[in-house]
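ligand=calcium ion
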Amino acid sequence: MYKRQVQLTASTGAVIDSSIVTGAGTQGILLRRTGNAYVRNNLVYTSAEWAITLDNTDSPLPAPVTANVVAFNTVHANGMGIRMLNASGEVRDNQLTEQRDLALYLAGPDLLAHHNNFSANGRDRDTESAYSGTIRVWASIGANPRYVKPAGLDGVLGGAGWRDDDFQQVV
Ligand SMILES: [Ca+2]
């Protein structure tokens, strides 16, 4: 299933599973004020801004949304990668490769990030200091995932050229 962008606002229990999201002019997957979300096994690439962002900011700042899981996604060659804003939960087992700038931004309470792979990003990780006491990061990996042929035979990465792109990993 190919999409240019996925947006949800003020939902709970959303599952975004096995989508291909490429060529977003802004964010790839944008979840606003969303708790209990499960974002798994998606391929999100060539978004101009964040690939996957859980954005729970407002004025005044609402209570954190909780129990979100962002796992097993491939996030490649976006402006930036995964961002958690005033949203707690778990970010695990994601491939974060070749973001132009920051690959993972943790800016919420009670965030766990583990077994994420970082390769060739402008910057790998940043943590908002206001929340750093309840953020834990462990078992990060730094390996080239050796995708088979990200741009495919047509040599065009994502967008209109997405169909032959191959992110399987050479084993
Ligand atoms: Ca292609």
